[in-house]
Each structure stands twice: as C-alpha cells, then as structure tokens.
Amino acid sequence: MDYGRIIDESFGYTKDGLAGNLGTWILLIILALLPAIPIGVIFAFMVISLMAGTAPNIPLFVGALAAACILAAILGSFYQGYMVRIYRGEDTLPAVDGFTGLFSDGIRYLVITIIYAIPVLLILLVSMGALILASLSAGPDIRNIFALLGGAIAGIITALVVGFVLTLFLYIGVVRFARMGKIREAFNFAEIRNTIGKIGWGPYILAVIILFVIVILVSTVLAFIPFIGPVLQVILAPVLSIFSAKYITLVYDSQENTGDLKIPAQD
Prior knowledge:
The chain is mainly alpha-helical and 267 residues long. 79% of the residues lie in helices and 0% in strands. Helix 5 (77-87) crosses helix 6 and helix 9 packs antiparallel against helix 10 (229-253).
C-alpha cells in the first residue's frame, strides 16, 4: 500500500473541494457546530442559576444534560451523513444539499457506531462496577488499593484493545453501508474480513494507525495555539473530517476487487 499517495490524494481532495468552495466549508462548519447547541444551552442555564445564587437541581440537571446529549447526537447526524457521501467514493467533494438524505444517512451511521461501541461500553461498565464494589469492601491497606488500581487499568487497556479491533471492522463496515445503502452490510463480518484480507491485515492496521497519528498530531497542535487555537479547531474541523473520510475510502479501494460494491444512484 502506497501510504504517501493515499495521504496526498486525501489532502488534495480536501483542499480542492474546500478551498474553491467557501460556501461548502461554511455550511460544514455550521453542521459541525449544531451538536454543541443543546449542551451549551444546558450549561448556560446552569451558569445563570449559579450567578443568581440559586442552588441547581442536580437530578433535573442530569436529566436535562442526558436529553441534550441525545439531541446533540441527532443533530450531528447531518454532519455524519455528509461523511457517508464521501465514503461512497465520489471523485469530487459532494455538495451540502439534500438534508433529508443527510439526516437519514447520519442517523443510520449513528446507529451503526452505537452498536459497535456496545462491547467497549460493557467492558468499561463491568470494570468500573467491579472497582466500586471492591473499593467498598476493601480496607485502607495499600495492597488493596494497588490491586484495585491494577484491575481498573487492566479493564481500561482491555477496552482500548477491543475498541481498536472494532474500529478496524467499523471503518470497512461503514464504507459497505455507504455503498450498498443497507445497515446490515456494516455488520457483514464475513465480507468485512474478506475485504481486509484483500487489503492485507498488516498494511490496513498500519494505515489506520497512521490516520490516528495524523489526526492526533494536528488536533494537539491546534489545541496548544494560544487564543486562536479553539477558533482554528472549529474552522478546520471539516478539513480533518473530510481528510479522514477520504483516507479511509482510498484505503478501502486499495483492495484488488471492489466490483461487488456499487455507488447507489442518488435521487
């Protein structure tokens, strides 16, 4: 696999699609910010309540925050639905239109992501639950404390490993979903393994690691830029998202035969 070519083509695709179309860039920034609105409103009300000297109703706040998170995930479906269009393998950056289609694709993408995340969440819940129960019964002995910490760390490491493995399947599964239009294709593990086998497990894993490194490095650099760092993160969010989606698309298409997956006709 030519990693340099994939990086160059992903960057070129992103640059050509956004630099020459400011309207698309602005619309994507707006779509990326939509999920922050409900959560921001909840915290704004809490700050106003504290400034007024009113003690916040914790159960009400937790319930409102949970509802805001659900609404944020739903609003984020428009943005994720746009990434699904990129996974379909179009040669040029698609227009930001057909919001009903974006929402439909994004909601299904959200469902796929949640299902893939369930094993990791279960591991973390079991690990944290066991830690809490053990801490309640353990004494102040330092050996007990180290044992508890060791168990928690082991649970986190297990969750990270399982999460990475599931991510390998998720990327290929999402491309299959995007190109065949069926959620079940995201869980067609036999075909997903077959696709990864054609790409090569080693090259594919390395390609995913390279993508992680690029995204983490860019995000870290932007986070450490004083004053304008957060603004740059918002402005460049579509750049990183489009680059990542195109990168995964090119990695997928590096397999020898993709004849079984056709880009569905768009209404």
